[in-house]
Amino acid sequence: MEMGWREMALNKNGFTLLEVLFALTIFCVCSLSIAEMLIIGKRSIANGNNSFTAVQAAKAQMELLRGSVLQTGTGDTCADLPESTITCEWSLKKDVPMQGLSTLKVTATWNEGDSNREIVLTAVRFDGG
Predict the structure, then answer these.
(1) What is the mean pLDDT of the chain?
(2) Which residue in 2, 38, 101, 126 is a FRET match for 14, CA 20 to 30 A apart?
(3) What is the distance between the alpha carbons of residues 101 and 88, in angstroms, rounded to a whole number?
(4) DSSP per-residue string spanning 1-31
(5) Is 88 exposed, middle or buried (0-12, 13-18, 19+ CB in 10 A)?
(6) Edge-to-edge, what's the strand order for the sheet holding 86-94?
(7) In whole angstroms, what is the distance from residue 52 CA to residue 39 CA?
(8) How far apart are CA 119 and CA 54, in angstroms?
(9) Range with the largest mean pLDDT of 9-18, 19-28, 73-82
């Protein structure tokens, strides 16, 4: 008794080429999705590090200005900026908003993707009088 093509196909165990291609397609789509999430995560961590560094540099400069004996002044660099992508400017104005007070302002700017980010810290210092 001779078996036909259909009977032979039903008796064989294993996967067809179509099933293997379908499984590979699903695997590739999932792998590419996971790889994209890793790239986005890496970019987010780098942006977070830049933000953190800028905030810490601005805070450090503000503390230096609060404790200094400077009466007035401006500057285009903050103390101990480890990264060149962050620019920092500060100013100290005497008798603003009133006699015996000084206004301190520190601005840190950095590039994050397509946009520029900025943090501005402002404080009022009592100079006596």
Answers:
(1) 86
(2) 2
(3) 23
(4) ----HHHHHHH--S--HHHHHHHHHHHHHHH
(5) buried
(6) 73-75, 86-94, 101-112, 115-126
(7) 20
(8) 8
(9) 19-28
Structure tokens at 59: 């805070």
How far is residue 123 from each of residues 14, 66, 68, 83, 114, measured CA to CA in Å?
A: 74, 8, 13, 25, 30
**Residue pLDDT, tens place only, 23-63:** 999 999 999 999 999 999 999 998 899 899 889 989 999 99
Give the other-Cβ count within 10 Å of 92's Cβ: 20
Q: Specify the length of the chain in residues.
A: 129
**Residue 81 pLDDT > 80, yes or no?**
no
Q: Is the predicted pLDDT of residue 7 greater than 70, yes or no? A: no
The closest alpha carbon to 92, from 72, 122, 63, 120, belongs to 72
Q: Enter the tokens of residue 81.
A: 């900026």
In which band, very low, low, confident or very high, does the pLDDT at 116 lie, cut at 50, 70 and 90? very high
